[in-house]
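Question thread 4412

I'm putting together a teaching handout and wanted feedback from people who do this every day. The idea is simple: show students a protein as raw sequence, then show them the structure tokens that encode its fold, then repeat with a second protein so they can compare. Below is the first pair exactly as I plan to print it.
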Amino acid sequence: ADQLKDVRHIQATIGAFAAILKNGHVVAWGHPCCGGDTSSFQGLLRNVQEIQAAKRAFAAVLSDGSVVSWGPKGHGSDGLVRVKEVEQLHATTRAFAAISSDGRIMAWGSPEHGGDCSRVESDLSNL
């Protein structure tokens, strides 16, 4: 319970919660298949500014504008830092999309759920 003090923000998947603490660290709990286990990514989850949740995965925007996502593959996460200079982050059930500081849109996760924007990439760059 000591880990859940000074909570600034909380998000939920279908089976887990993730909270941003005032110090910028993340605490997650719940089913590991739903993003409830951050043990492999704790070294990356520092200076977190925002968290978004898909159905079974989370993505966090760090203070440098990079994104770390965690949860099962195919649900928007492979655990890697995916993009840089993110200003906005959004989620569908199994994908994430981010708008970078230069106005580009990047998406990852299940293509059937919006994780592949390559087909409309030229349209998105003209927004």
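The second pair follows. I'd like the answer to focus on this one:
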Amino acid sequence: MKLTAFMMLAAISRVFGFQGFRLPLQRGASRLMSKEVLVPIGTGSEEIETCCIADTLVRAGAEVTIASVEESLQVTCSRGVKLVADELIAACQDKEWDLVVCPGGMPGAERLRDSAP
């Protein structure tokens, strides 16, 4: 099943208890301040999905960590854009996360599937 942006927003809003798709930026910021979100990325991840996920959650007040499943922090995305992750995935494995959001893109999705810390 293909995960559309609409379905992704619906899932995120259920996790954080939003009503509809309007992010309560003022009220939500204090409510989400304690939420920890992991966004793993790998070579070939979709750059727009990665950036939109992170941006939306940060604006809502969540603490977002982008983690590379590659050997370095710099990841080349599906259209050649280079992103620099906050952490390597190995540094994130022992932490408890409120939400893990995996961006699509090929072969990025396969790199996430096949990764091991």
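Top answer:
Good format. For the second protein you could add a caption like this: The longest strand covers residues 36-41. The radius of gyration is 14 Å.
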